[in-house]
Amino acid sequence: MTELGAFLLPALPLLALLVMLLLGRYPGHEAIVRFSEWVAGRVKSRHGVALRALPKPPRSFAPGGGLLIALGLAQRPPPFAA
After folding, report:
1. What pTM did the predictor assign?
2. 44 near 50, Cβ under 8 Å?
C-alpha cells in the first residue's frame, strides 16, 4: 500500500486539474485576465494617452549564432553580397 500511495500522491494535483478541465472549469483564468488587464493598463501614461512605441534599432547584417560559427569554420569566405 505504501508504494501505491507514494505513486499516487504526486499525481493527485494533476488528476484534480484534469477533472476540473473535463468539467469545463479553468482554474486561474480570472488571474490571467486580471494580469493581462494590468499589463495593458501600464502602457498608458498618467494622462490616459497611449505611449508611442520606440523606434526599432537599425537591422544588423552581421552573422550571429550558428551562422557565425559556420562562417568561422568555413574554408573559404562567403560570397560577396552585392
Report:
1. 0.36
2. yes
